[in-house]
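Researcher: Let's continue the batch. This sequence belongs to histidine kinase, and it's 523 residues. Same format as the previous ones, please.
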Amino acid sequence: MNKRIFFVLVVLMSCSLIGIILVQAYYINNSLQNTEKQFNFNVRKALSYVSNIVENEEKEDYLRKFNDLLSNGSINVNDTTAIINIYIKEDNPDTNETVIYRNGILEENYKVSSALFDIGLDSLNVKRILQKRETEIIENNSIDGSKNLSSMLARLSKLNESTRIALETVYKDKAYLKPIHKRVDVDKINRLLALKLLENDINIGYEFAIYSNDLATKIKTQDFQLNPASTFSVPFFYNENDKSNYRLLVNFPERKKFILSSILTMLILSIVFTLIIVIAYSSALYQLIKQRQISEIKTDFINNMTHEFKTPIATINLALDSIRNPKIIDDKEKVLRYLGMIKEENKRMHAQVENVLRISKLEKNELNISKERVELNDLVEDAISHVELIIEDRGGHIETHLDAEKSSVLANETHFTNVLVNVLDNAIKYSPEAPKIIVTTELAGNNILVHIKDHGSGMSKAAQKRVFEKFYREHTGNIHNVKGHGLGLAYVKRIVEDHQGHISVESEKEKGSTFTIKLPLIS
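Model: Same format as before. Here are the structure tokens for histidine kinase:
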């Protein structure tokens, strides 16, 4: 796939994923706000309901008691179209006072000259309806016998509408003077509030109180705390001017948890599905990038493999052409030399094919690796003997410090020798000058460590992380400047891990590399 097209696809997929996440977040936030608005509306509706019910019950109770007095004859009745007067007498034993309350509706008649209105009549009759209220407080020891309630009461024939209006005014005036804790009780408000909240599917704990001019009254629950930001309130007990000094307040300690719980299922499902999409997208993107890298590495591998096969094949062809030359074919020494070259090049190609096959078998778990007790120090010396001639041919040297007193390990002699030879061969290949290699062994607890250090070109930090990957080779500008196809160290890592060991590398550019192999000792 073209690199530009791949980049565009990744950008489009990423933008789409981010868009989906933002839409989900917006939808969840919008649902949360709507749920909170509905909750607030239901709470205020419940508070208004409780306020109205309590006030109406108190008013109706007052009017019913007054009507009962009229019915049983406790109040003498008289009616006139001109005046409706209501007198209420209350004795207060605590203060030794008598409160006399009067509320009257008065009708005043006037005659007005028609000249004011120019309507052709001598005069006009005008009526004015007045309402008059007054309260008189008298100490009981100053009241004489001539002042009695019956002489002060107006005679009412029935509880008609005008009387009812007057009585409601009386009720509001009288109730206003009464302390709030004598008008309602906590249990009644609690019962009404709980019932109404439950009707609106709000079944969480709450605390409530009644405040008078921003001051707490005796009507409140034990744990109520005023918090202006989260407390709901409505007016309580209006007076005749439709104003109220009292407010019914309620707050919900677990309000946020309740609102969240109402959309919890949707929230969890949205998060789960979004995570699945993110994980699937990340995995797909990772696989795409990985496949692209593998494709590039395989292309590199094929180019290297072709190059490495091309040289031996060309050498073999030249050697065969030389042998067929009539001047050479009779020269036994030259023929043997060319035959030796053909054998060596053929051996080289065979080794490369074997490397590929070994990796393939390792991945399919088809490589049979039998292990036995061996001395690791002996395996190191054996591996060094395989590469000594190559090092000497390049004018280098190898230094050994096999200081580990115990070196018995459980290993496959052939495969582990190949491991050490591969690492040594890698040190030789990446030494531009004459190779200088130091091999040491040491004990580390119940393990033995083998260090193979070179003074070659080294590698970058990025290359150190990927050096044991199959087909990986660090690019140096010319991919054929060092022979190989990125399989040697991959094979090394698989064999070491199969022996319950570990291999690592430390390197610095232009200063060389140190490969460390750790294997468990056996007693």
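Researcher: Any comment?
Model: The longest strand covers residues 97-113.
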